[in-house]
Design goal:
Blueprint (H helix, E strand, L loop, with lengths): L16 E3 L4 E3 L5 E12 L2 E12 L3 E5 L6 H8 L7 E6 L3 E2 L5 H6 L2 E4 L11 H9 L5 H6 L4 H13 L15 H13 L5 E5 L7 H14 L4 E5 L3 H7 L2 E6 L2 E6 L1 H5 L2 H8 L2
Parallel strand pairs: 5-10, 5-11, 8-9, 9-10
Antiparallel strand pairs: 1-2, 3-4, 3-6, 6-7, 11-12
Helix pairs in contact: 3-5, 3-6
This protein binds adenosine-5'-triphosphate (ATP).
C-alpha cells in the first residue's frame, strides 16, 4: 500500500462545500473526507497507536476490526478530539486540522460519535429525544418549551423514518428495546446532519432481527454520510462491509474486502493467536 496515495495537495483550488460550523469549506475534492496520517499515541511509553494511516472516502462505509487492544477506541478518540496524538496529523477534508479543535467543536462541526452504550433520555419520548438533538442550545427546558420550525419538524419525521421509529414516536425512550434505543441514538446524531459517523460496536447485545435492521440502517446511511463502524461481530461486518481495515498493535495490518482480509495470512495469524 502506498501511504501517500491520498496525500493532500495544498495547491489544489477546489470548489468545496461550505461548512457553516467551521467557517471553513470542507474540501473533499480528492475523495477522502478523513485523513489520519502517521498518528502515534503513547500511554506511558506504550504505543496504543503506532504510525497509523487511515483514509476514509466521502460517503464510504468502512469497517474497522482488530483484536482486543489493537487501538480501535484510541483511533476514534483521536478523530473525535478526545485524545491528542504525540505525532501525526488528522484532517477533516483537506484543510480542516482536527488536532486544533476541541472535542465539542469536532462534534458540532460534523463528526458524530455513537458510543457502545445507548445514552438516550429515558423519561422523554422518542420524539422529544430527537427534538433535544435538534438544538444548538442544549439547555433542556429551553429546548423542550420552544417552538420547532416546520423544517425542524420535517427533519424529525424524516429521521424517525430513517431509523425505523416512526411508530414509536410517542413512546418513552425508557420503554424501547435495546436495539431501538441504539437506533434512536443514531437518529439523535443524524439530527445534527453529520458528514462522518463513528459507530462503536453497534450490534453488541442486539437480537438477530435487530442486528439485521441495524445492517440495513447503516448501509442506508452510507453515501449520505461517511460511516465508520468498529465491530467485533464478524458475521455482521461481513453483512455490511465493502472496505475493511484490520488494526493490530496500533497500525493497519491489512485493508481490503472482507474476503481479502480474512484470507490474509497476517490477519489469520493475529486472530488465531488471540
Ligand atoms: N488511557 C490509557 N492509559 C493507558 N493505556 C491505555 C489507555 N487507553 C488505552 N490504552 C491501551 O492502549 C491499547 C489500545 O487500546 P484501545 O482501547 O484503543 O484498543 P481497542 O482496539 O479499542 O480494544 P477493544 O477491542 O478491547 O476495545 C490497549 O493495550 C490499552 O490497554
Amino acid at each position: 500500500m502506498n501511504p501517500f496515495k491520498h496525500a493532500r495537495n495544498w495547491s489544489t483550488k477546489a470548489l468545496p462545500q461550505k461548512d457553516p460550523n467551521f467557517g471553513h469549506p470542507l474540501d473533499t475534492s480528492h475523495g477522502p473526507i478523513l485523513y489520519v496520517e502517521g498518528v502515534t499515541v503513547s500511554f506511558d511509553g506504550f504505543k496504543a497507536l503506532n504510525n497509523l494511516n487511515l483514509y476514509v472516502d466521502e460517503g464510504e462505509l468502512r469497517c474497522i476490526i482488530g483484536p482486543n487492544g489493537a487501538g480501535k477506541t484510541t483511533m476514534m478518540d483521536v478523530i473525535t478530539g478526545k485524545t491528542k496524538p504525540d505525532e501525526g496529523s488528522v484532517y477533516f477534508g483537506q484543510q480542516i486540522n482536527l488536532l486544533e479543535l476541541s472535542e465539542h467543536q469536532i462534534a458540532r462541526g460534523g463528526i458524530g460519535r455513537k458510543f457502545q452504550k445507548p445514552t438516550v433520555f429515558e423519561a422523554l419520548s422518542v420524539y422529544e429525544n430527537l427534538e433535544l438533538a435538534t438544538a444548538g442550545d442544549k439547555r433542556f427546558w429551553k429546548t423542550l418549551t420552544r417552538e420547532l420550525t416546520g423544517e425542524q419538524r420535517d427533519r424529525i419525521d424524516e429521521v424517525l423514518g430513517t431509523v425505523g421509529l416512526a411508530g414509536s414516536r410517542s413512546n418513552d425512550a425508557g420503554n424501547l428495546s435495546h436495539g431501538q434505543k441504539q437506533w434512536l441514538e443514531i437518529g439523535m446524531l443524524l439530527m445534527q446532519s453529520p458528514r462522518v459517523l463513528l459507530v462503536d460496536e453497534p450490534v453488541a447485545g442486539m437480537t438477530g432481527e435487530e442486528t439485521e435492521r441495524t445492517a440495513e440502517l447503516l448501509t442506508s446511511l452510507a453515501g449520505k454520510h461517511s460511516v465508520i463502524v468498529v465491530e467485533h461481530d464478524m458475521a455482521f461486518v461481513r453483512s455490511i462491509a465493502r472496505q475493511v481495515t484490520v488494526l493490530h498493535q496500533g497500525s493497519v495490518l491489512a485493508e481490503g474486502t472482507m474476503d481479502q482480509v480474512q484470507n490474509d495470512p497476517k490477519v489469520i495469524e493475529v486472530y488465531l493467536g488471540e
